[in-house]
């Protein structure tokens, strides 16, 4: 067991070393304090369906500016149209030279039609992911689904999305039900207890990061911590945006990033650190 633990941690640190090159702002090193590496994760809820009261039509442009400024390695996108993911994928490609930018989108389902829930502009509406994977790129697989538990009075059926970047990491996002915290907690428990473990069957040792608007709060009723596995790292923005990650990471820093009034959620930027010295001691 000790040998397996050592091999896993050594592999985890190698993966994070790869990601950290893409994850830090210009002028920053891939290493933090001596012997550590970092990855920056940016959580965004852009309220861009065109139907909600928080819609301004300007949040995608602002999101592009934030991505150019912060240069995250991983971006989780909630409340977006499919074309928004395409536009921000181009921004990520401009920001990161070399390597591969991976983009994925999953539409929420329309209960009434059985098809994709749609933005006012007719595009599919849902959640998205952007990730920059430095060379060598080993391919990727997209996994997604619609939660089996939904609010029968809400025509929008919520979805989850994961990208398996082979040899690098599993990245996941979701936007949980807003009509009932109890339902949101049940969806969270399904995602972390069933969906993500199934996605990770290919390589259970590959690290995973989940970031999303869970419509649950730390210290709320119910408490978001009720659905977080005991071996996961967990951090939040003081409201409903949450980040969780499998073992091997600590939080180096976190902060809200203003969106200039273009959406009703500030973005949430988290820098994760993995300590290579500690891994070698195992």
TrEMBL record:
The superkingdom of the source organism is Bacteria
InterPro entries attached here? Answer: Endo/exonu/phosph_ase_sf
Residues spanning the signal sequence? 1-31
Which Gene Ontology MF annotations are present? endonuclease activity
Keywords annotated in UniProt: Endonuclease, Hydrolase, Nuclease, Signal
Q: Does the keyword Nucleotide-binding apply?
A: no
Any idea what this protein is called?
Answer: Endonuclease/exonuclease/phosphatase family protein
- Origin species, per record, is Micromonospora thermarum
């Amino acid at each position: 067991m000790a040998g397996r633990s050592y091999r896993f941690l050594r592999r985890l640190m190698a993966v994070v070393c790869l990601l950290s090159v893409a994850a830090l702002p210009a002028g920053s090193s891939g290493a933090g304090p001596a012997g550590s590496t970092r990855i920056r994760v940016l959580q965004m809820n852009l309220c861009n369906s065109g139907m909600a009261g928080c819609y301004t039509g300007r949040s995608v442009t602002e999101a592009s500016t934030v991505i150019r400024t912060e240069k995250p390695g991983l971006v989780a996108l909630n409340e977006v149209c499919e074309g928004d993911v395409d536009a921000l994928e181009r921004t990520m490609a401009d920001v990161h030279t070399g390597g591969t930018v991976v983009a994925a989108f999953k539409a929420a389902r329309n209960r009434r039609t059985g098809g994709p829930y749609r933005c006012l502009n007719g595009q599919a509406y849902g959640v998205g992911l952007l990730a920059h994977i430095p060379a060598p790129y080993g391919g990727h697989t997209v996994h997604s689904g619609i939660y089996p538990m939904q609010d029968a009075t809400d025509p929008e059926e919520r979805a989850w999305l994961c990208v398996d970047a082979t040899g690098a990491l599993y990245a996941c996002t979701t936007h949980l039900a807003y009509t009932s915290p109890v339902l949101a907690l049940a969806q969270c428990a399904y995602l972390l207890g069933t969906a993500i473990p199934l996605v990770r069957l290919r390589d259970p040792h590959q690290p995973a990061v989940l970031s999303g608007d869970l419509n649950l709060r730390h210290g709320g009723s119910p408490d978001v911590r009720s659905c977080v596995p005991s071996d996961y790292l967990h951090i939040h923005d003081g409201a409903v945006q949450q980040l969780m990650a499998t073992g091997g990471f600590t939080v180096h820093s976190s902060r809200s990033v203003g969106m200039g009034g273009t959406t009703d959620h500030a973005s949430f930027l988290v820098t994760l650190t993995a300590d290579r010295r500690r891994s070698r001691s195992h």
